[in-house]
Amino acid sequence: MNFPFYIARRYLFSKKSHNAINVISLISVCGVVVATVALVCALSVYNGFNDLVSTLFSHFDPELKITAKHGKVFDPECTEIKNIRALPEVAVSCAVLQDNALIRYKERQEIGIVKGVDENFSRLVDLDSVLIDGKFVLSDPVANYATLGIGLASHLGINAGFVSPIEIYVPKRDQKVNMANPASSFNVEYTFISAVFRINQQVYDDYYMIVPLQTVRALLNYEHEISALELKIKEGASLSSTEKKVKEIAGEKFEVKNRYEQQEASFKMMQVEKWVTFLILCFVLAIALFNIVGSLSMLMIEKKDDVKTLRNMGADESQIRKIFLFEGWMISGFGAAIGIAGGIILCLLQQEFGFIKLGDAGSSFIIDAYPVHILAGDILAVFLTVLSIGFLAAWYPVRYLGKKWLNDPE
Q: Which of 42, 317, 388, 393 is an S-S bond match for 289, by CB 3.0 to 4.6 Å?
């Protein structure tokens, strides 16, 4: 066994003559444990919320979305799009054409986003699971239908099954507004409301309306163009490898985005919040770890006689310094190990029982308890952070304060 490590281990677990040293050492370990538990739990909770938001967006966002890099629309019959649709990994492809529109119902009107989709949309995303009223239908032999977000439906004062049609107005492309007769400058289409969805994401609930693709083409004066092609990957196929293939085929003409890239701003904001919280807790951890300074300083004073004995036995200056350095490392190491274990146990209990609630029963939260998701990368980051700060906290008293107390012949 390494000689400095052996002596440091004996010092750590042996009873000191001054009880204050035992107390300070215990406080140091406990401080590291509490701060480490907080780091593990905080990062895991942010991961849980990240997964929750990702799940919510999955009800509306496709796994892969292809758009034109230049211009708003493109031809779905071009070679690149045909080759992408023919990939064996693609389970469903859906043509989409969307734009802003004025949506009117009787005396109420709102600016929203009209999303025209083809019949494959119901197989592309699990929209039925977020419908709160009605049934998702695009059209029948009698009429075209619209599915609205709950916020937009509320602003217009309508619900599924209302018999009056919704009016959709879009300015005519490539035409100036006729000031003498402004109404003639708009294309108008009519649909009936078939369902209302709620995704609990304002960007969709308050602005989106899903209608048949042909309705939007008529509004925008397009014959066959689309603004996006949305893809669902076959079960068991690798999303990352499929995305790479699609990007290779798409080339420089098209942009390919996965779900995280489609909502890049939201997910980036969550990651920033996560790591800012991590940094704040690191400051708390640093304060807890710098108890090691006091613990090692008092220990070096107490063990001056032992240091003289070790020198007489042939121990050099480097070995003596390593004894106290190893002791500081062990304090942070034990604290990190116990804290990580405790944090993981708490997260697993929260996952299973959800004992820490978000709010009172019957509140408006999407879920009742804080979601958690433990990632190995976060655990490794916490462990390395604790050890790094612990190294600095131990290195300072040994390197600078030890010059006086360890080298003092008296």
A: 393
Closest CA to 62 of 98, 103, 112: 98
Tokens of 116: 């025209």
The sign of the torsion formed by the CA atoms of 340, 39, 279, 23 equals negative
Longest CA–CA span in the chain (Å) reads 107
pTM equals 0.75
Cβ neighbours of 208 (radius 10 Å)? 21
Tens of pLDDT along the chain (410 residues) come to 565 666 666 666 655 544 566 677 777 788 889 999 999 999 999 999 988 888 888 788 899 999 999 889 999 999 999 999 999 999 999 999 999 999 999 889 999 999 999 999 989 988 888 899 999 999 998 899 999 999 999 999 999 888 899 999 998 877 776 666 666 778 999 999 999 999 888 889 999 999 999 999 999 999 899 999 999 999 988 999 999 999 999 988 999 999 888 888 888 888 899 999 999 999 888 888 777 777 777 766 666 666 667 666 766 666 767 777 777 788 888 889 999 999 999 999 999 888 888 766 445 567 788 899 999 999 999 999 998 888 887 777 777 655 555 555 44
Interatomic CA distance for residues 268 and 55, integer angstroms: 16
